[in-house]
Amino acid sequence: MSKVENGETKDNHNTHNVTPVSGMYENWFLDYASYVILERAVPTIEDGLKPVQRRILHAMKELDDGRFNKVANIIGSTMQFHPHGDASIGDAIVNIGQKDMLIDTQGNWGDIRTGDRAAASRYIEARLSKFALDVVYNPQTTNWQLSYDGRKKEPVTLPVKFPLLLAQGAEGIAVGLATKIMPHNFCELIQASIKILKGKSVSIVPDFPTGGLADFSNYNEGLKGGRIRVRAKIESRDNKTLLIKDIPFSTTTQSLIDSIIKANDQGKIKIRKVVDNTARDIEVEIHLSQGQSPDVTIAALYAFTDCEVSISPNACVIIDEKPRFISVNEILKICTEQTLELLKQELKIRQGELMEKLLFSSLEKIFIENKIYRDIEECETWEAVLETIDKGLEPYKKEFYRAITQDDIIRLTEIKIKRISKFDTFKADELMRKLSEELEVINYHLENPIDYTVDYFENLLKKYSKGKERKTEISTFDTITATKVAANNTKLYIDRKEGFIGYGLKKDEYVCECSDIDDIIVFRQDGICLVTKISDKVFVGKNILHAEVFVKGDERKVYNLIYRDGKTGISRVKRFQVLAVTRDREYDLTTGTKGTKVLYFTSNPNGEAELVTVKLTHASKAKTKIFDYDFTELDIKGRGARGNILSKYPIRSIKLKREGVSTLAAADIWYDDAIGTLNKDDNGLYLGKFKEDDRIIIFYNTGEYELTNFELTNRYDYRNIVHIKKFNPEGIYTAIHYDGKNKSHYVKRFKVETTTLDKKYLFISENPGSKHVLATSQKEPLVEIQTKNSKKELEWEKIKLDEFIDVKGWKAMGNKLSYDKVMKVKLLSNDDPIEDLNDKKNKDNSNDDNDEDNNKEQLKLF
């Protein structure tokens, strides 16, 4: 009922609470967000599984009979517990199966390396692996709950006794947060768990199933803000072909090839074709265009394609029904402690079972041996039977660990007469003895749970570690500057008078080849300098004197400049560098007065300082109207310096008289043998001071040598280098090699006579089975060899190799080292202060070889 008062309608009933729509939306959104986080996207710390994965594993356990089941059947069984469609369950099963840990698979399950999808669920089969049966299940330690429809029971979490979350990894996007946990190595996780149990600190890094190289310098223990750089393994088959053997995690061979083709189409790299030969092992062939350097192309592949990817981890897990962001080291610690607690629970359960078995065995023995069963024959009621048995057991009750209950007595009444008649006291005592021994072991483990858990992990390692070795190689990457490795895919043109530059001015003056990601530095006649991004056509100011590709931080590039001040008429001279600038900002290299004009300008890539002839005007009052000026008299200063006075009188002309020579000190170069690159940062092996024409020589364990320049963009196959040094054209190199045909060791000393750069030359025998043993640039190398004579006696002998053989051509076989069988070789001398990697890596490696037929080399100094 309602009534009207003063024109207003009033309700007679009590006023109801009204919830605004905005409040309803907020509550519903929070409920939805919580559901997605807890029930879909984020794994739980207890077992490392998302609900769909847990339900799949539970359904497979219910179906498990040791045989394979069709995946379609598993999906149907899982739908009893998972209230979602079959497609999501099928994808989750495939995801678990491809990780090759919890599920044994049969059929086409796809390939994470190539991106191929699995066959339809009706064609593929699966069963639980032995590992899963060992570490995932135990109904006695599982907490159960009703399924969504209340008809069945399902586990709240599975009692996983292993850091499964870190071994498999996890990725999911929820509402307001996401998780991305990288997969880690099986063996390393177990070893780290053992260290945690022993009270040691640990730090783990991921291991990807696709292999490759990874830089974990900024991993940040898997927390948000960390970054992993992952690279493909790229090898040079020859100067025209590259091979990709491993691919970065999160990519496929197809996506990798697509990114390479895209980079080639954009002109970042220059290749002829890409061929995917992937079968059991990954192999992608990249055929280079004519004249392309393999080392520079490898660097460009890392810079412009998916051959290098960056992965941002974000470890988030459900702990106490709340999402938490914690480090992978903390996750491992929690999982290890959880394994410890689960094993203790299992021990206590087993302890209780053994104690109950012992108790009933004792009751049974007393019941039969003391013929208590005969006393109950005269009892007329059930109560009297129970009372008689209880009275017969009374003298022995103090020996039991707990009180004897009515249920215990009832069990005694259920013993069959046949069992009583055949009761064997000796067998009963033997059974009780075994139970007691097992109980003692259990009690010992409960007193020392950490040792027991360590043994448990070591047993897992022994049982399941085969084939689970680390696949991803841990490395440290240098930062590749894209402009240094980009292929020259365009040409720079210039309209000096009108002030335009770009790659679209093809009718104007050609300057140089460049890349479409390069910066261009421009110098104008009014003394202005600016750096701009190359484009089709860009205005940079009229009367351009010089334009070229700008290399930031190039300390060897020096500019020589003479200009006339517009206000005073004084001509000044300066030498300067342009190391870093703001793009598209104009910098004045002169005094900046109106009418200032540049009279002379040169760009010198190696700090050259030339000699010029200066002619003054005829009307000038100077006594000497023609004189020479040497730029070597000037120090190199910043671009803002005014410069020194060249002349106070008007200058008619300036002409070059003599080409300049470099005034810069030689560059100090180091080789970083951890990543195979050169640097100027005092990092790695010092190679020496290098001038423009200097070269580097590299010897490889394949028996080849190679000459290169000292560009910092060079990339070397550091795994196979045995000797790297500044090249001395007059230097003598000594090598010991094994000839596969003659089955003998030879010594040769030679000069490097080739001059072609970036080409490998074989300096050992070409016969099959030939091996490189030693290479050194020492002037007087001294070696000690161990030989075995015909009587199989071992003898040691020291040999000065410079006296053993004269210098011959680099293709010569050399002199036989010994007529007896060579067993070991040791390099003893070190007369070079800048020695090769032989000394650094292994100066005395003496691996014995028992294969007398092949007579393999005994020392590999690499």
Description:
This protein is α+β, with helices and mostly antiparallel strands. The chain folds into six domains: 176 residues, Topoisomerase II, domain 5 (Alpha-Beta Complex), CATH 3.90.199; 85 residues, 2-Layer Sandwich (Gyrase A, domain 2), CATH 3.30.1360.40; 132 residues, Orthogonal Bundle (Topoisomerase, domain 3); 62 residues, no CATH class; 114 residues, no CATH class; 175 residues, no CATH class. The chain is 26% helix and 29% strand. The chain has 19 helices and 50 strands. Strands 27, 28, 30, 33 and 34 form a five-stranded mixed beta sheet that branches. Strands 42, 43, 45, 48 and 49 form a five-stranded mixed beta sheet that branches. A hairpin with a 5-residue loop joins strand 46 and strand 47. Helix 3 packs across helix 4, helix 7 packs across helix 10 and helix 7 runs antiparallel to helix 16.
